Amino acid sequence: MKIRPIFLIVLFTGFSLLLCTENAKADDITLAKEFYAHNLRSRALEIFIELLNKPQAPAANKAEALYYMGQISFDEGRYSTALNDWQRLIKNHPTSPKATEVDTHGLTPVALLKNLTSTALCRSFLEIRHSA
Question: What pTM value is reported for the model?
């Protein structure tokens, strides 16, 4: 059986594209994290949403995307959106490190609401005390 050079070229090109696609997926999550770390949250959020909705994206990247989407929403005071993102993370990727982190730190809806309530009460108390 004789292998034709054109077959080898097609095979090599396909393999190269596959490797580039995998690197692009890793680069997307890295880029989004960099945007997040540098307080460019709206740009990071767009990339995380795109990653989450890419069927070919690795599950680990989707889990990271949900985690950071929740974190961005929480940072911006959109607590119900943050809770929804973190619940999806725990439900869809229960064994991922980020799901474990969210679950371990008590970021379930009840625990989070208790923390928010106590924080709000403390702020109100301090504002009242400071104005007196």
Answer: 0.64
